[in-house]
Amino acid sequence: MTEYLKPVDRESARRYLDEHRDSAKIVAGGQSLSLLLRQGLLDPDVMIDISDVDEFSGIETGPDRVSIGAVTTYEQLESHPVSSTVETLGDSVDVIADRQVRTAGTIGGAISHADPSLDIVPPLLCLDATVRIGSVDGERTVPLEEFHDGYMAADLAQNELVEGITFDGSASDWESNYAKHSRVSGGWATVGIASRVRTTDDRDAFTDVRIAAAAVGDTAVRLSSVEDALIGEPTDRETVADAASNATADIDPLDDLSGSAEYKKHLARTLVERSINRTVDRTGGVR
Amino acid sequence: MTEISFELDGEQVTTNVDPKTPLREVLRDEFGKKGVKSSCDSGRCGVCTVHLDGDAVKSCLVLAPKADGRTVTTIEGLAGETDDLHDVQQAFLDKFATQCGYCIPGMIMTAVDYLEDGEYSGERAEIESALKGNVCRCTGYEKIVDAVEEVANSRS
């Protein structure tokens, strides 16, 4: 019979996981985990519920860093000012599942789950976010882009857990967006695209561009071919459309129930164009 | 087995569960709360929605130990001790929002969470968005939104 442990501080969470490293599963909001348990894909001997660990909860904003604790819920992120200042985050949370799931689902749980369709990951990739990972040996950090290293796979040892995520949220001259297509409102993304840009003061040209995509392969990815095609280039619609056609160079979608690979490639080009244009509009638009 | 104690519709209860069990099964099978419906078993349909410390959650996606030390309210406890219906239940009756009725407990629990969660505009698009995690296979959405809209307007 499975044992259920509920540590109340970081040290005991790390210690429990270390003691039961061969047989334990970390529980955060449980919104994805409960399905894996039901389907028999997981049958842990020990479940370690970290949702009462204060050190893993809430959002801290410093002068240049935003730090989100692993058990912070989507609802908490949605109602935090950072969802307005970093618009791609707000856009993303707004289209994740529904209010019931957002009440319980957590940022750390999502990142650990490592599903390539998660909406929260592309915005965080555009923010160059860093994952904070804990164990009895202390803390290490790894860029989110490297953390997901295969289909539903993450760079975590058996005795390690995700404790939070950190990014630079200070740069107010960036604008951003998240654009998604799904079969039903709140459903899993067929394709999701985050964009984050900075332009010259006169808004005529891109100076920095970050584009990332969900549901286009084994992991969410940055679309460097599109980014490279835009840096230094004009912000007009035609230039954006040309650059968006490069999106297929960085993705390798699968045929599945949500659509064919060919359809998803088409969708990726369309959503890249749409997301960048919306972001440009937020800068004040093309003059 | 893991012992859990929580307040269920105003009553303090205790039971032992396999921690992998979803809360919905405990509510229905252990405590007879058949007002908590069961359908998709995968978090899509919303018929099993209950309140955990006042917030709507899908009880098929909540592991039973998560209820320990907390308050669970089902459709059966929504109106409290009184014989009257909760005003959202009454509005669903008044607006003929119930067809086959199977989705209604979940719809009402989500609607109450929306209406009691601080600020709301009461606009139809906002109500539709709030209820998007609840599916009605009779497709009776217009009347359902009418009912929630009426309560939103009467309370503001």
TrEMBL record, chain A:
This is Xanthine dehydrogenase family protein subunit M. Keywords: FAD, Flavoprotein, Oxidoreductase. InterPro entries: CO_DH_flav_C, CO_DH_flav_C_dom_sf, Diverse_Substr_Oxidored, FAD-bd_PCMH, FAD-bd_PCMH-like_sf, FAD-bd_PCMH_sub1, FAD-bd_PCMH_sub2, Mopterin_DH_FAD-bd. Residues 1-172 form the FAD-binding PCMH-type domain. GO terms for molecular function: FAD binding; oxidoreductase activity. SMART domains: CO_deh_flav_C (SM01092). Signal peptide: none annotated.
From TrEMBL, chain B:
It comes from the Archaea. The keyword DNA-binding does not apply. This is (2Fe-2S)-binding protein. Keywords: 2Fe-2S, Iron, Iron-sulfur, Metal-binding, Oxidoreductase. InterPro entries: 2Fe-2S-bd, 2Fe-2S-bd_dom_sf, 2Fe-2S_ferredoxin-like_sf, 2Fe-2S_ferredoxin-type, 2Fe2S_fd_BS, Beta-grasp_dom_sf, Diverse_Oxidoreductases. The keyword Transcription does not apply. Gene3D superfamilies: 3.10.20.30, [2Fe-2S]-binding domain (1.10.150.120). It comes from Natrarchaeobius chitinivorans. Signal peptide: none annotated. Residues 2-78 form the 2Fe-2S ferredoxin-type domain. GO terms for molecular function: 2 iron, 2 sulfur cluster binding; metal ion binding; oxidoreductase activity.
